[in-house]
Input
Amino acid sequence: MAPDSMTQTVPTQLPADWRDFFALTKPRVMSLVIFTGLCGLLAAPGSIHPVLGFTAILCIALGAGGAAALNQWWEADLDAGMKRTSKRPLPAGRLQRTDARDFGVLISAASVVIMGLGVNWLSAGILALSILYYAVVYTIWLKPRTPQNIVIGGGAGAFPPLIGWVAVTGHITLMPVLLFLIIFMWTPPHFWALALFVKTDYANVGIPMMPVVKGEKSTRRQIFAYAVLLVPVAAAPWFIGGTSYVYGIAALALSLAFLALSLPVAFRQTGETDTMKPEKRLFGFSIIYLFALFAALVVDRALANNGWIA
Output
């Protein structure tokens, strides 16, 4: 019998922790998805039973989480080559790729079926479209092929308020389309601000993000252009009479602040400093911007419903 000092213990691989599956859903991104979906639901005219409303938001969350899991299943090798994503469950080796794929398919399918049976099939159809848009159109087709990936793919993250609205009303009108367009126009400057200070990651794995393919100067100018366009788009719900001046003033103030923060990003010379403070400041504010803008939409609707504003 070998002495104790010569005995070796072969480690066994533990099953995946529930937190690894939760991480596949990209909870930080999901929080914004849930919030904008909830705001679309609360701002919609009419009412919905609280249980059905909860069901709708749960389905939006499940759909977003399933699409995120499928995104990470497909991009596991790319994530392993990027510092920002290398510690995710798949590149870190804490999950099998097939587990991530099956998990993503399961909760995606469940979200659509439950939404259709419990709420309405139009909202379920839009939810299914959003999942396919992100998991297939953006992840598989656009992202590795064109620097316009974020522009076109921005539609994937713009669906939640539209879905929330349709869950209540059962039909599509101009107002929820405008909510979709707000997020669609917000996505490029938000994501390109991030891409500017992590562009080395994208370059290392061959993803043609705008700063990598077109350069920093072009990216900065386009960030500013989208920030300019965002001002009238964000205020459009007020212009068409879908909200009161409460939302209108908030939209203009927030959008002008967004525009002001994009100025030092747009006109800063490449290599001026290596701290990327203007870009990080714009990226951070862009998240606050979307939360605050959609919160203003809900406040506006609540004030109108209680007769405090016309």
About this structure: The chain is about 75% helix and 0% strand. The CA atoms of residues 39 and 298 lie 6 Å apart. Residues 1-14 have pLDDT under 50 and may be disordered. The chain has two domains: 21-171, 173-310.
